[in-house]
Amino acid sequence: YTDALLISSEKIEYAVNLEFIKENHPLNKVMSVDLSASGGDLCVAKLLEQKSMSGWEETQTTTWAEPDTDITKGKIINFYSIWKPDILIIDADGLGYPIWVSVKKTIDDAIGFRGAGKPRNLACGNARADGYMAVKEFIDNGWLKLRNENTIRQLEYIKRDFKPNGLNYIQNKKEIRKEQSESPDFADSLMMAIYAITYHSHLFNEKMQKNSSSFINTDFDPYEN
After folding, report:
1. Biggest alpha carbon distance in the chain?
2. pTM over cut 0.85
3. What does the alpha-carbon distance between residue 133 and residue 121 come to, in Å, rounded to a whole number?
């Protein structure tokens, strides 16, 4: 099983101890929200802040477990107003979809992330694998500083799922819950933030050019099977 681990423990330890040279000008922020999909799961909101041209730091992580979708929407909007991110990306799979739709009525450029959706990286089988391969790239290259203990712990057991077609997949959540007795909510929230940095960085410049956006950005395809 060691060979199947996505990121080596040595690389994760390096990401924990990493320090960036402080920039004198304000840089970008990304907020991600992984939403609860079953009774034992947590909602996890995370903030990543850019610390150098290529360096990012995990600076805020908060969780809640209330099943009320109105409470969840309120918490997302509240943290968005406090953290003031340049990009917001929200889990839009399953029960997360109606929450994302509701949030974007207030934050109209919120990105909807579907883990089972089409990958941008053609070496990956779906968007979730695409996001995790981007996390691996960031950590392997020393572009990401990790701070949250739960995120660090969960990244240590994330595995690749090798398929005959040669594409990269990540072990599915049902198998992870069976092996680890938890859902990788903290790791998934980090993955979504890195996915947004990798594929939606154009929003940073657009955010600077105007205070509000009139378009909706999402990977969701209502006609996709």
Report:
1. 49
2. yes
3. 9
Looking at the predicted structure, is the pLDDT value of residue 210 above 80?
Answer: no
Look at phi and psi of residue 100 and say left if phi exceeds 0, alpha if psi is from -120 to 50, else beta: alpha
> Which residues, at least 6 apart from 6, have a Cβ–Cβ distance to it below 8 Å?
132, 135, 136, 155, 158, 159, 160, 170
Q: Would you call 27 exposed, middle or buried from its count of C-beta atoms within 10 A (0-12, 13-18, 19+)?
A: middle
How confident is the model over 61-81, as a mean pLDDT? 93
Q: Among 62-66, 102-106, 137-141, 210-214, where is mean pLDDT lowest?
A: 210-214
State residue 164's pLDDT score.
Answer: 87
Gyration radius from the chain CA atoms: 17
The whole-angstrom separation of Cα 147 and Cα 187 is 12
Say how far apart CA 114 and CA 93 lie, in whole Å.
5
Q: Tokens 């089972």 appear where? A: 116
| Closest by Cα among 76, 212, 195, 62 to 135 | 195
Closest to 31 in 3D by CA, of 150, 161, 214, 207: 207
